[in-house]
Amino acid sequence: MSSNTLLLEIKLENTIEKKMSYYDQIEIEDMTFDVDTQLFTYPCPCGDRFQVYIDDLFNGEEVAVCPSCSLMIQVIFEKEDLQQYYDDADLQPPIEISAAA
Ligand SMILES: [Zn+2]
C-alpha cells in the first residue's frame, strides 16, 4: 500500500519536472504553419510533431506540445510576427487585446 503511494509521488514529480523544462526552443519561422488546421508544427524526435494553435500563441501561449510523447518546446516569437500568418491564412486574430486605435 505504501509502495503504491511512493510510486504515485514519483510519477507526480516527473510530471511537474517535465512541465517546467522544455525540450528545445524553436523560432517561429522554423516551424510549419498549416492554414487549414491553423496549427504551427515542428518535428518531434519521437516521429510525431509538436503543435500549437496560432490563436493560442496570439493569446500568450508559447508552448507547443507533442501529443504522442508529451515533450514540449518553447516557441520564440513576437506577437507582431503572427499577423503575417493570419494574413497568409486569410484569418483574423481572435480578440483585439490592444486598445490602441
Ligand atoms: Zn513526440
Compose a concise summary of this entry.
By secondary structure, the chain is an alpha+beta fold.
Topology, element by element:
Blueprint: H1 2-20, E1 24-27, E2 32-34, E3 39-43, E4 49-53, H2 54-58, E5 63-65, E6 72-76, H3 81-88
- Average residue-wise pLDDT: 87
Rg of Cα set: 17 Å
Going across the major beta sheet, what is the strand order?
Answer: 1-6-5
What is the share of helical residues? 25-40%
Query: Superfamily at the CATH H level of one domain?
Result: DPH Zinc finger
- Helix/strand-derived class? alpha+beta
Gross geometry = elongated
| Terminal-residue CA separation | 62 Å
- Say which molecules are bound, naming each kind only once: zinc ion
What's the total count of β strands?
6
Percentage of residues in strands: 15-25%
Tally of contiguous helical segments:
3
| Biggest sheet details | 3 strands, mixed
* CATH topology description of one domain: Microbial ribonuclease fold
The residue ranges in which pLDDT falls below 50 over 5 or more consecutive positions are none
Per CATH, which architecture of one domain?
Roll
Helix-strand pattern: HEEEEHEEH
